[in-house]
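A reminder from the course coordinator: this example appears on the midterm review sheet, so study it carefully.

Given structure:
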């Protein structure tokens, strides 16, 4: 599994429930509950699907553990069978079946050596002394996903007996940045790209996830079972992202075509996938969701195509604490509640109800957002944000000067990969594929300082960024469209999260009138946010766009769609843009289609009368003004100031908190006063000079979120005073000009709440 699994081992104990990192040199714990559930599942399928009366103790089985680590699966298989059999039955099974037909592969020599020692300590006491010297342990210190084309390949020659069923089980590693790049397995992985793209969906280009190690181990097992027509069972503990992720559409189609039945127990646990009112722990304490995956090849014959075959898929899941999940998978396998997964357009392995399938079909008939616009692009990506951006422009200038005057160069060091690094007072950067420190230093401090502008960092919060070609990461195509959002362009772009990890995905949309960071909607937990500009220039191949940006002078809509829009509604290009933004903020639409908005770019319904459509466009235009803070606010600002407590020109944001009773945000108040009784609070002087507060903040405003992130809290947190110099630390008070920006955000949120209600009324009229 991946490098950050919950517990490392510096010493290898004689018996442990262990797995390992395939591409590294460290072994890790794997919960025994997962291993035993896999074994019970295999036993269940052998007894009920293969009609094998002996299950796991049958004499016609062959076992393959392709990433053995410290042999947890074979070790627990021995214990599992021993509990189910008499002493005589167990001894026969051990010597005649397991020790002859268990084949384990471990790439790392150190781990292999320890695994061999652990295995022999486990097995030797169970074997008669006279027989122990004759026993051959089929443990191999080699990769199971290397070249297997020639006849001498061990895996190519399994099963030894054609009547045997293959059991391929284990916990293969998860590593997106895999170093396992055997041409053989890379060639097999191409099968997972064949049905990856389809009509009506944006073409998928980023295929990094398909190169994950666990995908390669699944493909290897598929090759061994389905491609070679061997009946058997694939049973793995794996990443759950492939169950419905878009880039795994082709993989799912291939698996459905290869196997007769697929069974899934999804244990979730990805902390980035927020779920309302649900605490969801990971069984490994890692950042990757987990599932138990079983694939059955029942017959020893060529597999027909998917339509004729009709692969059956069964799904079960458990959310909650780690203890709850362990209890769930520790029950009798036949008691685990599975449901059948109906056929879905993108071959997802996670079921939805018949009503949702009908809704999905209706939703997919709406025009697809990338088909409406000519161009879209992900926001600006950087591997060294702390070098190029900061909420305080003075601190950013200091960082840039330190970079170019040699202050940071003196602090460079090399990591284990021989890459140059700098880590100092919250600034961290290093050599990477698309940006080298040496390249950055070819620029100049003057140029980098001259190119400081504001960009959308998170939601309403704009930070300062040095948008200079030597400072920004190379290798991204986002800059070609970002030139149309530079300050002089006076342009707009709708931002959406293509894949949302938030609770609902319903509010993962925002607008920008400036360049934007690649996670400006959902924050670092998001996968990436895309921009759809209002205007572009089609001459995108022109060189040196950094110094001579093209003028955004043409609307970014596909001509056929635009003509249809004008004919149907008698509205112009900007009405279309604002209509789309209005619809994306309509609660009824977002709630009704939230499950689909989470997993791909939106489909936009054009289902209203011309009059209603115009109203939605007008509200969308007002929302865009408020969300870009491009509105006149002198009266509202004055009203807010008199309902707040001002005294000084600058204010340090320290222990801020929100008082829902008084509808105030306090900038500096001791934590002990948060829990005061109402009676005690009433004794306070309303205009106390010791406390800076802003009033008229309703609970609805305080909770107002973009991409699942409460906006007022976010802005304050990013400017919270800190004496310590650390990453993005704010070491000063905020000025009146900055307070006015915050008040402008408050006004915007208040106005937005009312406008969103108006959108909902129009939507409900149509329904």
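Designed residues:
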């Amino acid at each position: 599994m991946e490098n950050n699994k919950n517990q490392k081992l510096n010493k290898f104990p004689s018996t442990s429930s262990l797995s390992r990192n395939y591409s590294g040199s460290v072994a890790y714990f794997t919960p025994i509950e997962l291993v035993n559930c896999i074994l019970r599942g295999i036993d269940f399928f052998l007894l009920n699907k293969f009609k094998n009366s002996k299950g796991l103790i049958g004499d016609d089985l062959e076992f393959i553990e392709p990433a053995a680590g410290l042999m947890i699966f074979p070790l627990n298989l021995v214990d599992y069978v021993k509990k189910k059999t008499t002493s005589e039955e167990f001894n026969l099974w051990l010597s005649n079946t397991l020790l002859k037909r268990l084949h384990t592969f471990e790439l790392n020599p150190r781990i292999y050596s320890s695994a061999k020692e652990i295995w022999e300590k486990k097995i030797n006491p169970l074997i008669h002394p006279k027989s122990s010297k004759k026993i051959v342990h089929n443990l191999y210190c080699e990769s199971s996903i290397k070249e297997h084309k020639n006849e001498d390949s061990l895996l190519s020659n399994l099963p030894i007996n054609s009547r045997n069923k293959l059991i391929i089980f284990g916990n293969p590693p998860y590593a997106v940045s895999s170093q396992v790049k055997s041409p053989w397995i890379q060639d097999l992985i191409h099968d997972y790209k064949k049905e990856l793209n389809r009509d009506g969906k944006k073409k998928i280009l980023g295929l990094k996830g398909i190169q994950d190690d666990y995908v390669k181990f699944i493909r290897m097992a598929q090759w061994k079972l389905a491609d070679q027509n061997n009946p058997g069972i694939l049973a793995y503990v794996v990443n759950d992202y492939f169950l419905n992720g878009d880039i795994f559409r082709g993989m799912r189609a291939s698996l459905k075509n290869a196997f007769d039945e697929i069974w899934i127990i999804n244990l979730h646990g990805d902390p980035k996938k927020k779920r309302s009112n649900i605490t969801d722990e990971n069984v490994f304490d890692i950042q990757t969701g987990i599932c138990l995956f079983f694939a059955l090849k029942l017959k020893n014959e060529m597999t027909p195509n998917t339509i004729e075959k009709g692969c059956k898929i069964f799904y079960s899941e458990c959310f909650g604490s780690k203890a709850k999940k362990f209890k769930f998978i520790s029950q009798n396998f036949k008691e685990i509640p599975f449901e059948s997964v109906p056929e879905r357009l993108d071959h997802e392995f996670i079921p939805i109800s018949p009503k949702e399938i009908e809704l999905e079909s209706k939703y997919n008939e709406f025009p697809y957002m990338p088909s409406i616009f000519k161009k879209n692009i992900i926001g600006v990506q950087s591997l060294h944000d702390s070098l190029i951006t900061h909420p305080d422009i003075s601190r950013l200038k200091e960082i840039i000067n330190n970079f170019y005057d040699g202050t940071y160069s003196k602090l460079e060091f090399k990591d284990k990969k021989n890459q140059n690094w700098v880590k100092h007072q919250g600034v961290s950067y290093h050599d990477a594929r698309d940006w080298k420190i040496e390249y950055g230093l070819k620029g100049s401090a003057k140029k980098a300082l001259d190119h400081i502008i504001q960009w959308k960092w998170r939601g309403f919060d704009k930070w300062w960024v040095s948008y200079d070609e030597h400072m920004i990461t190379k290798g991204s195509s986002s800059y070609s469209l970002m030139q149309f959002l530079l300050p002089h362009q006076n342009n707009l772009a709708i931002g959406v999260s293509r894949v949302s990890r938030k609770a609902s995905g319903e509010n993962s949309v925002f607008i920008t009138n400036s360049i934007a960071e690649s996670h400006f909607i959902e924050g670092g937990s998001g996968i990436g946010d895309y921009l759809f500009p209002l205007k572009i220039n089609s001459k995108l191949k022109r060189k040196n766009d950094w110094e001579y940006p093209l003028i955004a002078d043409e609307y970014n809509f596909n001509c056929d769609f635009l003509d249809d829009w004008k004919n149907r509604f008698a509205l112009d290009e900007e009405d279309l843009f604002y209509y789309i933004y209005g619809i994306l903020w309509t609660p009824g639409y977002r709630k009704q289609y939230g499950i689909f908005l989470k997993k791909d770019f939106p489909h936009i319904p054009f289902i209203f009368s011309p009059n209603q459509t115009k109203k939605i466009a007008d509200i969308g235009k007002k929302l865009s003004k408020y969300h870009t803070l491009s509105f006149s606010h002198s009266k509202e600002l004055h009203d807010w100031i008199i309902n707040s407590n001002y005294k000084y020109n600058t204010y340090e944001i320290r222990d801020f908190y929100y008082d829902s009773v008084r509808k105030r945000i306090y900038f500096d108040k001791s934590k002990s006063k948060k829990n005061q009784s109402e009676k005690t609070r009433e004794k306070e002087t309303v205009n106390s000079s010791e406390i800076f507060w802003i009033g008229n903040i309703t609970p609805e405003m305080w909770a107002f979120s973009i991409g699942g992130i409460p906006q007022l809290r976010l802005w304050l947190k990013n400017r919270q005073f800190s004496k310590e110099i650390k990453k993005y630390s704010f070491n000063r008070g905020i000025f009146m000009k900055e307070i006015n920006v915050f008040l402008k955000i408050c006004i915007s949120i208040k106005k937005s709440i009312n406008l969103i209600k108006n959108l909902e009324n129009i939507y409900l009229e149509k329904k």
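The chain has four domains: 8-351, 362-381+476-621, 384-453, 634-766. Residues 1-26, 302-308, 671-675, 677-687 have pLDDT under 50 and may be disordered.
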